Amino acid sequence: MTKTSSASLRDTQFGRSSRRMRLQTLVRLRWLAVAGQTTTVAVVALVLQFPLPLLPAALLVSALATVNLTLAIRFPSTHRLEPGASLALLAFDLLQMLGLLFLTGGLANPFAPLLCVPVIISFASQPLRHSLVLLGFAVTCASLLAFSPYAVPWRLGEQLVVHPVLQLGTWCAIVSMMSFAAFYAYRVSHEATLLADALAATELVLEREKHLSQLDGLAAAAAHELGTPLATISVVAKEMERELSGDERFREDVALLRSQSERCRDILRRLTSLSADNEEHMRRLPFSSLIEEVIAPQRQFGIELVLVEKGDRGREPVGNRNAGILYGLGNLVENAVDFAQSQVVLTTNHDAERVTITIEDDGEGYPADVLSHIGEPYMTTRGRENETAGGLGLGLFIAKTLLERSGATLVFENRDGGEHGARVRVSWPRSVMEMGPRAT
Q1: Contacts made by residues 5-13, CB under 8 angstroms, sequence distance 24+
Q2: Which label site among 64, 189, 314, 331 has the fewest CB atoms less than 10 Å from its CB?
Q3: The last residue of a domain, from among 187, 207, 227
Q4: Same domain, 24 and 65
Q5: Same domain for 187 and 153
Q6: Which among 95, 99, 97, 108 has a CA at the least distance from the CA of 151?
Q7: CA distance 433 to 351
Q8: How does it sit in the membrane (predicted)?
Q9: For residue 418, is it within any domain?
């Protein structure tokens, strides 16, 4: 893997569209809110027969239903909302709920914690800065409920009085629940998004490698398809050359046409034989050749690459060429080169049981808090301040995933407690390497 391909992978924006909520999802949630509010108002006013400002409450519920119906009619079900539009709709939901709660007792109303719902939805699906704005607005709404002059609907002739201290406790409970639930929803959603992005990046890498490996087959197929019309052209050129050999006006042109058709046939013949001639060479790869192919792109960046071979080349394993292994090892070597001071050492070993590659650099090593989370897609790599990967650790996650899918075991550690750099050890059962890793 080259520096250029790694940079292009880091520049790819996978998760931007995942932070755009589908309008149909929000519409369905709001219909659920309309149904719940309608049922609650009807039960309180008609079944329990508690005094309730029925007309204002009905108008507020109707306003939510009207806006929801307008959205459903105006936009297709597949429409995705921009973060600003989602923020506006969720803020409207908060205002509508604030109005209902304000008219029915404020913080004394047992349904007051429902103010948390739009905030949780926002933190689970929207960018953090928009969600923080909504959180601040929701806290303001909860504070305004403390000043409601209306009593909680209760039996005729009785008034339910809630002590101010209890109202303060309710406010604290709502704000703390809102904050905790929002943080939890954001972390779960964020980590799931990063994991999905990392898996999508892995699929892109594999598709690219497979595409490159199939070019020789496509060339052979194209040559086969072009062979028949070109043979016809060649036959016609020979006939024309024989018929016009005595005509000075066309003899040179016909001879040129025939020679060029023969040249095209030679080119197509070479393309046709390309896959067959090189198939075994491309499909089977000795262990030493695999290592050289991995480290060759990294020799141009001013870091000394030292290869130490402890096994006998005459007995080295020969396995199937695997794009996942090449990419995964290439990413590990590139990471070591990025953080090394002057030298990266690759030590290879193989025996009758296992094949092992150890990659060591003389950099600063892994921080203790990073070492325990190596390979997670939402992890920053070694704490570098100018890290261009955006702190996602996607490259390392992809490398670890591809190598583990090939049957490898990876161990990340520091050399001498981190004072002399980092070490990554990758090992396979020899039988897996020789018969070829699982297809990726």
Answers
A1: 6/331, 6/334, 6/395, 7/388, 9/201, 9/204, 9/205, 9/394, 9/395, 10/388, 10/389, 10/390, 10/394, 10/395, 12/201, 12/204
A2: 314
A3: 207
A4: yes
A5: yes
A6: 108
A7: 12
A8: Multi-pass membrane protein
A9: yes
Integer CA distances (angstroms), 18 to 15, 45, 80, 175, 185, in order: 5, 42, 10, 27, 15
Residue where a domain stops, chosen among 148, 180, 207: 207
Q: Report pLDDT for 130.
A: 92
- The number of beta carbons lying within 10 Å of the beta carbon of residue 98 is 22
Tokens representing 387? Answer: 């890290």
Torsion, CA 22, CA 25, CA 26, CA 28, rounded to 10: 150
Q: Same domain, yes or no, for 193 and 339?
A: no
Same domain, 249 and 149: no
Q: DSSP letters along 289-324, please? A: HHHHHHHGGGTTSS-EEEEEE-S-GGG--EEE--HH
Taking the C-alpha atoms of residue 398 and residue 377, their distance in angstroms, rounded to an integer, is 8
**How far is residue 278's CA from residue 187's CA, in Å, rounded to a whole number?**
50
What's the predicted TM-score (pTM) here? Answer: 0.52
How far is it, in rounded angstroms, from Cα 260 to Cα 245? 17
Give, for all 440 residues of the chain, the pLDDT tens digit: 444 444 444 444 444 445 678 888 899 999 999 999 999 999 998 898 898 899 999 999 999 999 999 999 998 877 888 889 999 999 999 999 999 999 999 999 999 999 999 999 999 888 889 999 999 999 999 999 999 999 888 888 777 888 889 989 999 999 999 999 999 988 888 877 777 776 676 666 666 666 555 555 556 666 666 777 877 887 888 888 777 777 777 778 888 887 888 878 777 766 665 544 444 555 677 888 888 888 888 887 788 888 988 878 878 888 777 778 888 888 899 888 888 888 899 999 988 888 999 999 888 887 777 777 776 664 554 544 444 333 445 677 778 878 888 888 888 888 876 567 888 999 988 887 776 554 44
Strands 284-286 and 343-350: unpaired
- Domain with 274, as residue range(s), is 215-283
* Domain tally, the chain: 3
- Report residue 138 as tokens: 């929701």
Within-domain flag for 289: no
- 1 domain residue, yes or no: no
Measure the CA–CA gap between 1 and 209, rounded to whole angstroms.
10
**379 and 403 in one domain?**
yes
Instruction: Give dist(CA 195, CA 332) in Å, integer.
Output: 19
Query: CA 197, 199, 204, 206: dihedral to nearest 10 degrees?
Result: 160
CA trace torsion 159, 164, 170, 174 (10° rounding): 120
Per the listing, tokens 């779960």 go with: 188
If asked whether residues 395 and 353 sit together in one domain, one would say yes
